[in-house]
Amino acid sequence: MNLLLLGTVFIPLGCAALGIVVARNRSVQHAIAMLGGIGAWLCSIGVLWANLDTGAPMVYVLGGWQPPYGIALVADMLSSVFAVMASTVVAAGILYALGCKDKCVSYPVFMPLFLCMGGGLNGALFTGDVFTLFVFIELMVISSVVLVAISDNRLGLEAAIKYLLISAMGTLFLLIGIAAIYATFGTLNMADIARLLADGERPLLAEAAAVMLMCAFLLKSAVFPFHFWQPDFHTTAPTPVHSVLSSVVVKIGVYGIIRMTTLMFTVEAPTIHSLLIILGIIGIFFGSLGALRTYDAKRLLAYSTFGQIGFILVGIGWGSALALAAALVYAVNHSFIKSAMLMITGVLSSRTTGKTARLEDIGGLGKKMPYVALLYLLGGLALAGVPPLNGFISKVGLIQSGIEVGSWLPLGLVVGAGAITLLYVTRTWSWVFQRAPNPEMKVKDTGDSMIAPTLLIAACVALGIVGAPLLDIAIQTVHQVNDPTIYIQAVLRR
Amino acid sequence: MNTIFALATGIMFAMGVYQLLRRDLIKSAMGFYILFTAINLLLLAVGAFDGVVPAYVDSGGVPAETTSDPLVQALILTAIVISFGTYALLLGMIAVTSRRFQTVDSDRVDNLKR
Questions:
Q1: Comparing C-alpha atoms, which of A242, A240, A249, A368 is closest to residue A300?
Q2: CA distance A259 to A263
Q3: What confidence tens digit (pLDDT) does each residue in B27-44 have?
Q4: Nearest CA in chain A to B9
Q5: Across the interface, which of B79, B86, B97 has its CB nearest the CB of A168?
Q6: Of the ranges A281-290, A362-371, B87-96, which one carries the lowest mean pLDDT score?
């Protein structure tokens, strides 16, 4: 069973290596990439299933060196839920890339890098060791930077340099945090750190480490003071990459913050939570207003991600069990919605000659495409939180937990910002699908394939109508996460 | 020994941050590398108790408290490989940018603003 856990990380990486070997034959390479994506997806579902079945975290000890000295891959409910979400979107991204007309998709390095990004994501989610977390995050960052730099959009290169320099700062924070942790505790294993912290050791350097890790995770999630790279970097990425970056790669920071506040730094958690509420609210407003004044469908969704991450952070910040479960449901639902929306926008912009997504260029483009219009409408309404789609469940969960916590001001702001979401989504929809087409704009007959976004929207609708299983899983996750001894005992076996 | 480490790390950090904030893209890439070297020094200082006795598995007579910590050295090796790869990638992208814009002045590499 534990081999499944290994598979989530090493199937994509192995397929990436294989993909470089067979780079000359592009169709074989693409088939291998698709197999790798599906393999990792099945493995992650298996891991989640085993977790639900046994109720105990799954541990794979790499090389047989027992923790705390060796490196272990640990799959508890939290990482499994995030990994299922991540591998679903990565597999959908590969599926989209197979039917994508962009030039960069046919480059020999595209698919291997895409798989490296997926493998790095899963690795960062499953690792039980702070330094290995750094290695996997770097793997993910470097592959995503190359993927953006080779984008068809010539601005990709500039955005990639900008992001690489900024993300290097995040890596730096992470490394300083790791050094501080090692100096204080003499261990890098998360469970061991948590054990030592729970035993009452509280040196000053531990707080410094908490601040450093926090900065690193906020930077990866593009939260308010560190957000400025995000719209440029995401907008210039090729569509399949953008759909992964804007939905699951930014969630790595969210995962790290949940892991930090529930496992390691439980004493500092209330301080971190109050900070998260403020940063989340700022993010919600900057993101929503930024989306409102943007007239580019892709950039609008990048800003919207900035806002939606804010909703998740507010949920984590409220800190109650229900709020954390709502934040988890929100994170999963947002990933599916956002990647589907980005793929649909990509399909639209692939029909234009310049591959632009500016509203004046793609305005009226969708008038003869009722199927695309329907999918976009479903996705947009899900993003805005209209029943019976999955966005509604996540919004209701968040509002309910806000009422339960009784934090009225943030709650009012969250509800108000939800209305802005509805505003910018319907504005884009009416611009693209209702307006008379621009007569100067030449429309191509064929564009990118619609299979991947259709599947993702179907998942959104399904999660909206049958939302109970996801809620159950989220509540079980929160129960497990709120008791750090389960994680510690599973890893250290004591 | 720790004083020297602290001073060296501090000075290199200052140099790195200064270089990173410069307008010249190549110089900021160099600043990036200097910063990573500073972090590697910090990692080394974290593990080296006295920083002078090498880390032997069987330290034959040397008391265990005075030997260096081998783990941080392994961490530094990994960090060097990663930072080197990132640095190479960064320089490669700057090379393409300089060909495209005929400059490495980051104020004039500004198509994103338009």
A1: A242
A2: 6
A3: 999 999 999 999 998 888
A4: A176
A5: B86
A6: A362-371
Tokens of B14: 């200052």
> What local confidence, expressed as pLDDT, does residue A424 receive?
87
Of A142, A178, A183, the CB nearest to B89: A142
Which of B65, B112, B113, B114 to probe by mutation at the A interface, max A CB count within 10 Å? B112
> Could you give the ipTM of this predicted complex?
0.89
**Sign (positive/negative) of CA torsion A303, A306, A307, A312?**
positive
CA distances from A361 to A300, A424, A436, A494 (A): 15, 17, 12, 62
CA pseudo-torsion sign A460, A462, A467, A473? negative
Q: A164-196: per-residue pLDDT in tens?
A: 988 888 888 899 999 888 888 888 888 888 888
Q: Tell me which residues of chain A have a C-beta less than 8 Å from any C-beta of chain B.
A: 131, 134-135, 138, 142, 145-146, 149, 154-155, 157-162, 164-165, 168, 172, 175-176, 178-179, 182-183, 188, 232, 236
Do residue B28 and residue A168 have CB atoms under 8 angstroms apart? no
Ordered by start, the domain boundaries in chain A are: 2-492
Cross-strand partners of A443: A352
| pLDDT for residue B54 is more than 70 | no
Say if CB B68 and CB B47 are below 8 A apart: yes
Nearest CA of chain A to the CA of B85: how many Å? 9
Q: Which domains does chain B have, with CATH numbers?
A: 2-53+65-113 (1.10.287.3510)
Quote the CA–CA distance of A476 and A480 in Å, as a whole number.
6
Residues whose CB falls within 8 Å of the CB of residue A285, separated by 6 or more in sequence, listed in order: A307, A310, A413, A417
Length of chain A: 494
Looking at beta carbons, which pairs linking A438-445 to residues 24 or more positions away fall under 8 Å?
A: A438/A360, A438/A361, A438/A363, A438/A364, A441/A352, A441/A353, A441/A361, A441/A365, A442/A352, A442/A353, A443/A351, A443/A352, A443/A365, A444/A350, A444/A351, A444/A352, A444/A353
